[in-house]
Amino acid sequence: MSERGLLIVLSGPSGVGKGTVRKAIFDSEGNEFEYSISMTTRQMRTGEKEGVDYFFRSREEFEELIQTGKMLEYAEYVGNYYGTPLDYVNQTLDSGKDVFLEIEVQGAMKVKEKVPDGVFIFLTPPDFDELKSRIVNRGTDDMAVIDERMKVAREEVDMMRHYDYAVVNDKVDLAVDRIKKIIESEHYRVDRVIHRYEKMLKEF
Ligand SMILES: Nc1ncnc2c1ncn2[C@@H]1O[C@H](COP(=O)(O)OP(=O)(O)OP(=O)(O)O)[C@@H](O)[C@H]1O
Ligand SMILES: Nc1nc2c(ncn2[C@@H]2O[C@H](COP(=O)(O)O)[C@@H](O)[C@H]2O)c(=O)[nH]1
């Protein structure tokens, strides 16, 4: 049986560039991760596609999946549910592939409780002014939602202490390189590889 893959969680405040950096990682050379497509109850934005950006569902459908234990984690964020379907993650990790989640902070903390040996990476903005201008310039949210996202962002940045790594997203290509290096080195951590040798050592 192949070794179980790594669960990689990229998180951070809204607008910091998680989606941008995640897409750049998946477009980069030598990428071998599998992206877990999230489910949400929010409205589809112009240009988004069902099953590519998200699985878009009604609140009733989402709540049914929560109640039947089909979500690894979920969170209510600025009035909508967002969550990670459990079966895809388990099946992909069991097949030996690494799974990449791009999720907000409350959800990341729930994953940490359930999968403590995951790799938890917090993407940080260079500063709060830059964070706000990224959300404003993206042009996807009205001012009330932007203010709400900025309020939540202050609390989220404080949660950085619970992560394994903090990566500043000053330039997308630099953030991508930093994250890929972190993941590569995580594969060589002794606690991740020792079990392969345990049987051998016992018989030696
Ligand atoms: N390093 C960067 N420098 C300048 N602009 C950036 C950088 N990274 C991302 N951006 C821009 O910031 C905006 C927000 O990025 P993105 O949508 O990827 O953030 P996000 O963290 O995924 O947001 P959300 O959590 O709300 O989905 C986008 O317009 C994106 O082009
Ligand atoms: N807890 C989870 N958060 C998720 C998931 N998928 C996306 N997200 C995060 O939600 C916010 C808002 O996203 P947007 O697409 O409306 O801008 C953002 O921080 C995403 O990273 C998920 O499965 N679980």
Automatic annotation (TrEMBL):
InterPro entries xref list: GK/Ca_channel_bsu, Guanylate_kin-like_dom, Guanylate_kinase, Guanylate_kinase_CS, P-loop_NTPase
Reaction(s) catalysed by this chain's protein: GMP + ATP = GDP + ADP
One of the record's GO cellular component terms: cytosol
Enzyme Commission code(s) on record: 2.7.4.8
Highest taxon, organism lineage: Bacteria
Keywords for this protein: ATP-binding, Cytoplasm, Kinase, Nucleotide-binding, Transferase
Gene Ontology molecular functions: ATP binding; GMP kinase activity
Annotated Guanylate kinase-like domain residues: 5-184
Top EC group: transferase
Classification via HAMAP family: Guanylate_kinase
Similarity comment text for this entry: Belongs to the guanylate kinase family.
Protein name per its UniProtKB record: Guanylate kinase
Provenance organism: Vagococcus carniphilus
